[in-house]
């Protein structure tokens, strides 16, 4: 068999619009809710699913078009790993597997708990989570366990804001309802050093830049403190003004941000 045709049975509906918005794994402590909307024709297939507390979602990394044999995971130092020893989205067949809490089944809509997926993600299959079969707490976590043990011993970095950054972030939140700081601060508090997968780049000896979807955070590091110096848009004015710029995330907000005198 040289090829296999798969068809989505439904799609994810969530407030997470960008890859940056989605955590690398579902946040078990979050109280967020999301939806899985199935296509017509699967009504009977959902019978009895509401008797389970958790389910598996089999889905497609629909924004990826390439794969790599060795990838750079976001966790830990900048060290490449074999793709099959990671949960990287850059896979030969970009299939994803996520375990989620099932809260409610109404018609063709499933209400679920925290997700690590973006809005519109195609769903291929749903399976019940069975603790006796699916849970193996004694199993080795491999290199991930080693990294997590090291991180547990490390003190988190404190996040500080300059007056400028505070004004800029307040403007985005109050005027445009844009707030990417929870995700950004969580990543920076763990490890603010340069890392391609975390999209952190060193600008000079004192300044680093983190890409947060279509936005940029510029910051410095002083001991165990990360100071956010400023916020910037991620696209040039010419790109935003171009005809194809209409498809850029937060385009209007970026254009207005550029005109503000902070």
Strand segment tally? 13
What's the architecture of the largest domain in CATH terms? Beta Barrel
Give the class-level CATH name of the largest domain: Mainly Beta
The CATH topology annotation of the largest domain reads as Elongation Factor Tu (Ef-tu), domain 3
The secondary structure category is alpha+beta
The count of domains is 2
Largest sheet: 6 strands, antiparallel, barrel
Helix content: 10-25%
Count of DSSP H/I helices: 6
Estimate what percentage of residues fall within beta strands: 25-35%
The residue ranges in which pLDDT falls below 50 over 5 or more consecutive positions are none
Strand arrangement in the largest pleated sheet: 1-2-7-6-3-8
Shape: globular
Write down the Rg. Answer: 21 Å
User: Cα distance, first to last residue?
Assistant: 60 Å
Mean pLDDT, as a whole number?
90
Compose a concise summary of this entry.
It is built from 6 helices and 13 strands. It is of the alpha+beta class.
Question: Can you offer a commentary on this structure?
Answer:
- The structure is a single chain.
- The radius of gyration is 21 Å and the shape is globular.
- The protein has helices at residues 131-134, 142-153, 163-176, 181-190, 237-241, 251-259, and strands spanning 10-13, 34-38, 54-60, 70-71, 81-82, 95-106, 109-112, 122-128, 158-161, 200-202, 208-212, 215-222, 225-233.
- The chain starts with 9 loop residues before the first strand and ends with a helix.
- A hairpin with a 2-residue loop joins strand 6 and strand 7 (109-112).
- Helices cover 21% and strands 27% of the residues.
- The protein has two domains: 10-149, YaeB-like (Elongation Factor Tu (Ef-tu), domain 3, Beta Barrel); 158-259, YaeB-like fold, CATH 3.30.2310.20.
- The longest helix is centred in the middle third of the chain and has 14 residues, at 163-176.
- The strands form three sheets. It has a six-stranded antiparallel barrel.
- The chain has six helices and 13 strands.
- It is an alpha+beta fold.
């Amino acid at each position: 068999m040289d090829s296999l045709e798969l068809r989505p049975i439904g799609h994810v509906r969530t407030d997470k619009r960008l890859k940056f918005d989605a955590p690398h794994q579902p946040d078990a402590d979050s109280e967020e809710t999301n939806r899985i909307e199935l296509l017509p024709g699967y009504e009977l297939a959902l019978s009895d699913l509401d008797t389970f507390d958790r389910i598996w979602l089999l889905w497609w990394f629909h924004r990826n078009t390439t794969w790599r044999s060795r990838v750079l995971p976001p966790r830990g130092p900048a060290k490449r790993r074999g793709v099959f020893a990671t949960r990287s989205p850059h896979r030969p067949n970009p299939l994803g597997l996520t375990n989620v809490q099932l809260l409610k089944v109404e018609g063709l809509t499933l209400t679920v708990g925290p997700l690590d997926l973006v809005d519109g993600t195609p769903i291929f299959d749903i399976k019940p989570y069975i603790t006796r079969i699916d849970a193996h707490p004694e199993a080795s976590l491999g290199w991930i366990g080693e990294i997590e043990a090291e991180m547990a011993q490390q003190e988190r970095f404190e996040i500080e804001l300059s007056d400028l950054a505070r004004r800029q972030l307040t403007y985005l939140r109050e005027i445009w309802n844009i707030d990417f700081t929870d995700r950004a601060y969580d990543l920076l508090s763990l490890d603010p050093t340069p890392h391609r997968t975390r999209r952190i780049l060193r600008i000079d000896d004192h300044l680093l830049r983190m890409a947060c979807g279509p936005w940029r955070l510029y910051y410095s590091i002083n001991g165990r403190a990360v100071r956010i110096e400023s916020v910037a848009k991620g696209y040039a004015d010419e790109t935003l003004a171009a005809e194809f710029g209409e498809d850029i995330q937060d385009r209007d907000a970026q254009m207005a941000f550029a005109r503000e005198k902070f």
